[in-house]
Write a structure and sequence with these properties.
Chain lengths: 298, 298
């Protein structure tokens, strides 16, 4: 791909907007669409063109979607004026949202039937990483479509991992990763509570753990949010955490894979949301672990 | 401490032996004692002197103990010819085993009553790290005794974290860390099973996870053992994993800290040992997670 094709970006939440900005910065022509058009403005100012519908955003042949859940993806893809009706023959839909493997499989079949391609390409990393082209991308789908869109993904990510042609493979990888993150947060939440109740500084223990056996961004950063009780603004909202754990459990049930840790996490998230924490960062489950041990919070 | 005092080393399992070897390599005079004397031989060949009893190993004023559990520590400390009877006034017992906080508190009191000091100094890292002086050390106990023994700990470790003077504080930090490691292993075991049942390569997903958000030794190495099904020789024996989770749960019960993940892990370890895996590496709980999903192992 010598020349840079127009890329449509559908869904301009914090992640979608950061991706669109990155593509513009790197010289890609970008068409944007968002359910509420206000989010389009900063990108139009950077040179994006406005698409009136997801179908119109898809007209250039490559369209990237980044929306909040299964229902939103279904709506922008198969609805009236959805992506499927706008993609011309040979077009590719880069589906980057965190959605159920079951929906990915369904949509992949619908795209194939329409003579276009569906590539699942969920990412790890947060919006600032997207803006800097430093995401980690998992992708799966038809080989030719992956070849076509690889330059787009390599603009957004520092690494692109290809999980083959089973349409939903990358979605399972993404759900597994988010589940592992939530599990790390819960393990820290329980441990820090145990320490505090023994009169030991969780902050100091976190310093030891996160500079030794757990010297990884997840432990260093998320553990820091817990000891600092820094749950706002949310980096990743509690409600989305519950959604993703629910998707992991459903994906497990579908293939017969019991996930006992995920089951514990589901109850933890439900309780935390019941305590009014649904719009805090998901590391705020640490408050529930502390309260369960009789520690007073807030 | 301009001159290097003799250090007694009591308990020459793989970790204790590596510590004694490191001290010898760095020019410390070392006296060794082990329940079965065969383990003393390689160290005597390196210049250690043989102590006939733990008490005799303690006669130089600093004695380090590294034994398998509470019962063994009690036996080498308070038994006939135990450490407590051999430490002269001002002597320090560096207690480096992974034991219960409750026992640490009891022994600290017994040492204080005898005019000597008990410093809890459990470590993170494996025997090769001890041999290279690259452990991470958590310590707690009386300030003067910590000052006296810091040069010994700095010979063994790349970092020494001081958790104050509550005698058992460092033990709680150690149990919390081991619990977090076990939780990371369980989260990987569940995730890899979910992936395999979806026809996705766990090996390839592990490559993504452990080079991105989970780029830490625990995930990289332990996850590698899981995908390679490399559970022998054990780096850390399954039975010791159950012991440590039991200690964490007991430490939680004592102060009123519920640990739901630790409760799940306890059942997992019990089941894995029931399946004949007690002497495998503790990452072999991944076999139980896979079998629970109907995957055939062995």
């Amino acid at each position: 791909m010598a020349e840079k094709t127009q890329v449509g970006v559908v869904g301009l939440g914090s992640m979608g907007a950061a991706m669109a900005a990155r593509l513009l910065d790197q010289g890609w022509p970008v068409a944007v669409w968002n359910r509420s058009p206000a989010a389009e403005e900063p990108l139009l100012a950077k040179g994006a063109v406005r698409a009136a519908t997801p179908a119109e955003a898809a007209a250039g042949g490559i369209v990237l979607s980044m929306v909040s859940d299964d229902a939103a993806l279904k709506s922008v893809t198969t609805g009236d004026a959805g992506i499927l009706s706008g993609l011309g023959e040979g077009g590719v839909h880069l589906s980057m949202s965190t959605v159920s493997p079951a929906l990915a499989a369904d949509l992949a079949a619908a795209h194939q039937a329409a003579g276009v391609a569906y590539v699942a390409a969920p990412v790890f990393g947060q919006p600032p990483a997207a803006a800097a082209g430093q995401l980690w991308v998992a992708m799966s789908g038809p080989a030719a479509a992956k070849d076509t869109t690889r330059p787009v993904l390599e603009t957004l990510g520092q690494a692109v991992h290809d999980f083959g042609d089973v349409p939903e493979a990358a979605n399972v990888v993404k759900l597994g990763g988010n589940f592992m993150i939530a599990a790390a947060v819960e393990a820290m939440a329980e441990t820090f509570t145990l320490l505090e109740k023994h009169g030991v500084s969780a902050r100091q223990a976190h310093e030891l753990y996160s500079t030794s056996i757990f010297a990884a961004p997840i432990y260093r950063n998320y553990g820091g949010f817990i000891v600092d009780r820094k749950f706002e603004p949310p980096r990743f909202r509690m409600k989305l955490g519950l959604k993703d754990i629910g998707l992991a459990l459903a994906a497990g049930e579908k293939v017969g894979a019991p996930l006992p840790f995920a089951a514990v996490l589901r109850e933890r998230f439900i309780g935390s949301i019941a305590h009014g924490r649904g719009d805090l960062d998901w590391t705020a489950i640490a408050l529930d672990a502390a309260e369960a041990a009789g520690l007073k919070e807030d």
